[in-house]
């Protein structure tokens, strides 16, 4: 069984979805890959303990707290490669960024490979089903460009500003 509730955030409505084990999804309404690969029916249940705990985490986060990811039981569904990338995302400290290339190097090391494609990492980052909490908004291009956020570049900027990231070294990519 999957359960859902909505959370009103500064970014708009967020859809929170859990099962009995933990949080499996958090999407900004209308974002790319909304609901990911969930095909099953989802029951509205505002009082599910996992959803309540997630809402409290979000309250703290949006009021410039620095809640720990470890306070939540996250159970995103994805491939082994995606899971590896998402785990690395969880290690990016609040208020800091990491490049796709840096993540690719960590994945390559973990897999005992010489190199790993930053584009492959980008695909896994883009399919992160637990936005904000698994902080894919903290990933930037090697040149500091703010690329690749399924929730939209404007929302990525808002989240980075909320975390007081030094935006002087980051920039929006030019439209081609």
Automatic annotation (TrEMBL):
It catalyses: a 4-O-methyl-thymidine in DNA + L-cysteinyl-[protein] = a thymidine in DNA + S-methyl-L-cysteinyl-[protein]; a 6-O-methyl-2'-deoxyguanosine in DNA + L-cysteinyl-[protein] = S-methyl-L-cysteinyl-[protein] + a 2'-deoxyguanosine in DNA. It is an enzyme of class 2 (transferase). It comes from the Bacteria. Keywords: Cytoplasm, DNA damage, DNA repair, Methyltransferase, Transferase. The active site is at 136 (nucleophile). Signal peptide: none annotated. GO terms for molecular function: methylated-DNA-[protein]-cysteine S-methyltransferase activity. InterPro entries: MethylDNA_cys_MeTrfase_AS, MethylDNA_cys_MeTrfase_DNA-bd, MethylDNA_cys_MeTrfase_DNAb, MethylG_MeTrfase_N, MGMT, MGMT_N_sf, WH-like_DNA-bd_sf. It is found in: Cytoplasm. The keyword Transferase applies. Its main location: cytoplasm. Residues 80-165 form the Methylated-DNA-[protein]-cysteine S-methyltransferase DNA binding domain. Its EC number is 2.1.1.63. GO terms for biological process: methylation. This enzyme catalyzes only one turnover and therefore is not strictly catalytic. According to one definition, an enzyme is a biocatalyst that acts repeatedly and over many reaction cycles. Involved in the cellular defense against the biological effects of O6-methylguanine (O6-MeG) and O4-methylthymine (O4-MeT) in DNA. Repairs the methylated nucleobase in DNA by stoichiometrically transferring the methyl group to a cysteine residue in the enzyme. This is a suicide reaction: the enzyme is irreversibly inactivated. This is Methylated-DNA--protein-cysteine methyltransferase. It comes from Massilimicrobiota timonensis.
């Amino acid at each position: 069984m999957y359960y859902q509730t909505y959370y009103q955030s500064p970014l708009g409505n967020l859809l929170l979805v859990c099962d009995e084990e933990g949080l499996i999804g958090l999407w900004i309404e209308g974002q790319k890959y909304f609901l990911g690969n969930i095909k099953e029916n989802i029951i509205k249940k505002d009082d599910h303990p996992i959803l309540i705990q997630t809402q409290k985490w979000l309250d703290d986060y949006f009021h410039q707290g620095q809640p720990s990811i470890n306070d939540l039981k996250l159970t995103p569904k994805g491939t082994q490669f995606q899971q590896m990338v998402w785990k690395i995302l969880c290690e990016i400290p609040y208020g800091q960024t990491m490049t796709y290339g840096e993540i690719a190097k960590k994945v390559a090391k973990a897999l005992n490979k010489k190199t790993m494609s930053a584009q492959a990492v980008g695909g896994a980052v883009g399919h992160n089903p637990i936005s904000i909490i698994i902080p894919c908004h903290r990933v930037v291009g090697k040149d500091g460009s703010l690329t690749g956020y399924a929730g939209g570049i404007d929302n990525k900027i808002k989240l980075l500003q909320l975390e007081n990231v030094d935006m002087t070294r980051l920039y929006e990519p030019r439209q081609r």
